[in-house]
Design a protein that fits this description.
Helices cover 40% and strands 14% of the residues. With 425 residues, the chain is α/β, with parallel strands linked by helices. Strand 3, helix 5 and strand 4 (151-156) form a beta-alpha-beta unit. Bound molecules: pyridoxal-5'-phosphate. Its cofactor is pyridoxal 5'-phosphate.
Length: 425
């Protein structure tokens, strides 16, 4: 089977542009005519630095990332960032509290610690908006690290009865930790696009805006570089590369510089231990990664190169429209697919509510979820070269992952199959 005969709708790892893979096969063997390949050269070589700088530049251009943000590359995967956001932002929160108490009580370290223990015990909160399987996992990781009592699930969108995630409750129903002066949560976390459930935030939540806005951390693993983002609203944006940006192996973090030294001090490992709070692994420590330009340890430079090439492809295609050009195409692909699904309500049912339908992961049922009919639907799709459409094992059904490397032509091929199937059903 040829690549060109197939449209792959898998949720991640996901398709990459063929032109990038063709170039990749060359650079793996021989990079820049050096006689060795890109997986073999040092991550500290000038070439590696150039690759890293290029990836940062293209991402900065595409998303218009302001100067007061830093880009980090880590090998954490998306899941590692569930932990990293907790370790790092809790360390910032604790140090802020410690400094404030020290101001009040002076040099008496024993007293500072006593008071700090009470403050941590009573006030440390991490807010989670649980709108799907991945934010649920992130909130569970936070509870595992700092203890459930410190995790405030401000939204639990699970539907009563079947426990499915199909909607985002309106903001007036959220129970965010109040923002008091000098207080508030250590972070507010949400997953911008829930890959398993097909639920995407239509826009940045209003409740997280304003002068005293909390530190917002967002998982954009499955909708990174698919639409414009007002980066300034976020403390941390992260995502695994393996959907829209590149291949498996790296995660990208965009972090506000005011959350890195020297602008801010993190609680020391000794202090965190005294407070029974977790001390994170050094490879997830944002100050360490930032200080070392993401080269604290061996970074898979090939993966960064792939990401850089994919992003450069978008820059070449859309030019001054930046990520807006990709956003238009993503929206158009999603629009024609949803429109077709909605046209045949007796055959297809989109799982999530209208207002929160993901542009990236289009989740639907065929004939009310009849197992045999969904199997037949998938088999028919495969015959047309439409692969990877099976829904996540935890929810079943069909999922079309409409990532950037799926072309408009691919979306039209899916639409045509949806039409044919519905008309013959
Ligand atoms: N977050 C989201 C939204 C995801 O879709 C995934 C994986 O599919 C992850 C996090 C976890 O990423 P990883 O497998 O790289 O740990």
């Amino acid at each position: 089977v040829n690549r060109s005969d197939v449209h792959y709708w898998g949720a991640g790892p996901a398709p990459l542009p063929t032109a990038v893979l063709e170039k990749a096969s060359q650079v793996l063997l021989n990079y820049k005519d050096k006689g060795i390949g890109l997986c073999e050269i040092s991550h500290r070589s000038p070439d590696a630095n150039e690759i890293l700088a290029h990836a940062k530049q293209t991402l900065t251009y595409l998303l218009e990332i302001p100067d007061d943000y830093e880009i980090l590359f880590l090998q954490s995967g998306g899941s590692g960032e569930f932990s990293a956001t907790v370790y790092n932002l809790v360390a910032i929160w604790v140090e802020k509290k410690r400094a404030k108490i020290a101001e009040e009580v002076g040099d008496d370290k024993g007293e500072v610690l006593r008071r700090l223990r009470t403050v941590v015990d009573e006030e440390l909160k991490l807010d989670y908006l649980v709108t799907g399987s991945w934010s649920l996992k992130a909130s569970q990781e936070a509870a595992r690290l700092v203890g459930a009592k410190h995790v405030n699930v401000a939204v639990d969108a699970r539907k009563a009865g079947d426990g499915k995630f199909v909607d985002i409750p309106s903001e007036d129903k959220w129970t965010l930790t109040p923002r008091t002066s000098g207080g508030g949560p250590a972070l507010v976390y949400f997953c911008d696009n829930e890959t398993v459930d097909g639920v995407e935030f239509p826009a940045f939540p209003h409740s997280l805006e304003g002068d005293d806005a909390p530190l917002v951390c967002a998982d954009m693993s499955s909708n990174f570089i698919s639409r414009k983002v007002d980066v300034r609203k976020y403390a941390v944006i992260f995502g695994g590369a393996q959907k829209n940006i590149g291949n498996t192996g790296i995660a990208i973090v965009i972090i506000r510089k005011s959350l890195l030294p020297p602008a801010v001090t993190y609680a020391s490992a000794d202090l965190l231990r005294e407070l029974n709070l977790p001390v994170g692994p050094i490879v997830l420590d944002y100050p360490t990664i930032a200080k070392n330009n993401s080269l604290y340890n061996t970074l898979p430079i090939f993966d960064v190169w792939i990401a850089g090439q994919v992003m450069a492809g978008l820059v070449n295609t859309y030019g001054a429209k930046r990520i807006g050009g990709q956003e238009d195409i993503s929206n158009e692909k999603a629009r024609i697919i949803y429109e077709t699904l909605d046209k045949y309500p007796n055959v297809y049912r989109v799982v999530p509510g209208n207002a929160v339908r993901s542009r990236m992961n289009i989740c639907f049922r065929v004939h009310g979820g009849d197992a045999d009919k969904e199997k037949a639907f998938l088999a028919g799709a495969e015959k047309k070269g439409l692969l990877g459409l099976k829904g996540h094992r935890s929810v079943g059904g069909i999922r079309a992952s409409n990532y950037n490397a799926v072309s408009l032509e691919g979306a039209k091929t899916l639409v045509s199959y949806l039409e044919d199937y519905a008309n013959s059903a």
